[in-house]
Amino acid sequence: MNGGGLSREELIRYGRHVSIPEVGMEGQRRLRASSVLIVGAGGLGSPAALYLAAAGVGRLGLVDHDRVELSNLQRQVLYDTDSVGTPKLASARTRLAGLNPDVAVETFEAHLDSGNAFEILEGWDFVIDGSDNFPTRYLVNDACVMLGTPFAYGAILRFEGQASVFAAPDGPCYRCLFRDPPPPDLVPNCAEAGVLGVLPGIVGSIQANEAIKWLAGIGKPLAGRLLLIDALRMEFRSLDIAPDPECVVCGAEPSVTELIDYERFCGETAGEMATGGEGEAEDGAGTEDTGDTMEDVDIDVHELKRRIDAGERFQLIDVREDYEWAICNLEGAGARLVPLATLPAAVESFDAAEPLIIHCRSGPRGDRAVEYLRAVGFDHAVNLAGGILAWAEEIDPAMPQY
User: Fold this and answer.
1) How far is CA 306 from CA 299, 300, 302, 310, in A?
2) Active site (annotated) includes residue 190
3) With bands split at pLDDT 50, 70 and 90, how would you rate the model's confidence at 273?
4) Per annotation, catalytic residue among 144, 173, 190, 328
5) What domains can be seen in the chain, in order of their start residue?
6) Taking CA atoms, which of 145, 211, 313, 373 is between 20 and 30 Å from 201?
7) What is the pLDDT of residues 96-149, one digit of tens each?
């Protein structure tokens, strides 16, 4: 051995890392001594696994239980056409070994649940959540908080994605941002709404980048920040996230002190993504409106403006999240914030005698909310087409956009 503990072959293989002053030989040695577990070997897990293996992370774990399907190949770059029908983990192991035989790849062909989560997640230096459903996402968060293991969060839907690092020391966890899982069937998944094939490559690479920085001890992590990515507009925005002192998992007096199987809250179909996929943008946050809505379910922003100016009585419900409300809102028009996940608990406070106008950022969450509200008896609930983005673009250009 030479080169400060790196072999000649390693110096050649990782030369472009070693030549970076911030990484150098010490950073590369740290990567070699580190371990990362990836939950979900799908759209997000694929690029993350490839780049972490290429970077020389010494021990890499993959959790998945699916087989490769033809529809995966549009975005899950870890696999090829010959892999269709085979277990994902078998194909992934072969591909990663071919990329870098010095990386020890461990596979867990299992559905992550409260019974095995600690056993699988314990002992890793960093976790990447490439999950594709809310039950797994909340389970990963809770387990990582309890184990003291930081993890990179990623989510995608249509053209938009999110990324952050949670459960870092003194940083927020996923529940500080999204306290409760959404109700069953309120959130569209990638199978229903679609996803631009390159988007998971962008978000998964960001997750791998965060893992490498953390393990090498360089740079500023995404902990305490939520990165919002709009691939259609090619815009990036970073929002600060503070730890919630009343968080049910990482707060001063946590009420969740053991792992929970969240299928009973979220429903088995609440998202295509988790152990096996790509992670949908939270509650469909920031997705583009396709305009594919039922007749008489939408109104446009000009009609809303007319109703406001005319002094008509109606209830204006904003189903976005707290952090989105803080950026811009229609509070001056009487809007009330009811995040989508809390909608079923809030319906009893709605006045059935007054019209309900629902809005989100750009439309899809509003569509889901209206579908739910009409199913429980609010027949005159309508969605604001284009959401608050349309309001900012067509009615109030001074309103901040995100």
Assistant:
1) 11, 10, 6, 6
2) yes
3) very low
4) 190
5) 34-284 (3.40.50.720), 298-394 (3.40.250.10)
6) 145
7) 999 999 999 999 999 999 999 999 999 999 999 999 888 999 999 999 999 999
